[in-house]
Design a protein that fits this description.
By secondary structure, this protein is mainly alpha-helical. The protein folds into two domains: about 10-50, no CATH class; about 55-160 and about 170-175, AhpD-like (Up-down Bundle), CATH 1.20.1290. It is about 65% helix and about 0% strand. The chain has helices spanning about 10-25, 30-35, 40-50, 60-70, 75-85, 90-100, 105-120, 130-135, 140-165. About 40% of the residues are buried.
Amino acid sequence: MTIHTIETSPEGSKELLLQSKKAHGFIPNLHGVLAEAPTALAAYIDLHKHFMKSSFDKDELTVVWQTINVEHNCHYCVPGHTGIAKAMKVDDAIIDALRNQTEMPTEKLQALHLMTLSMTRNRGVVSQQELTDFYAAGYSQSHILEIILGLSQKVISNYTNSVAATPLDSSSEKYAWTKKVTK
């Protein structure tokens, strides 16, 4: 797939790519790929903005993003969100647990991880017991909806990166990742 620049992108993506370059200092390869369909790029950017405004703190945002990225085996997003998490000063114990598919450092984050994982694996079909356990950890109905919001964002990026084999951005290369094979 084509990775567009500002000059090669369809007219509807040019301004979005300009904004992306201003925000990041470069155009992430994912944005360049999504630029082929201006509405897809706009939707991804909008979903990202909305998820960032959710009630989740930086650790919880990272848990939702990376749980989905790892489950979807996204070669591009796991390294990208590792860099984002480090920039947000997320504890390395959280970052490493997500990348290595090990238990979260707190029970509450583990509950968020398990609910996000179940939502991802089961396409939103979760049991009453899973909901009860999630609520008992201190989360609410609104958090379920915010997981769905994060999942919506990640489906766009993870699926796009899978189809496009999007190359890592140079800023993410040091965080390259391969999914651990589990039995």
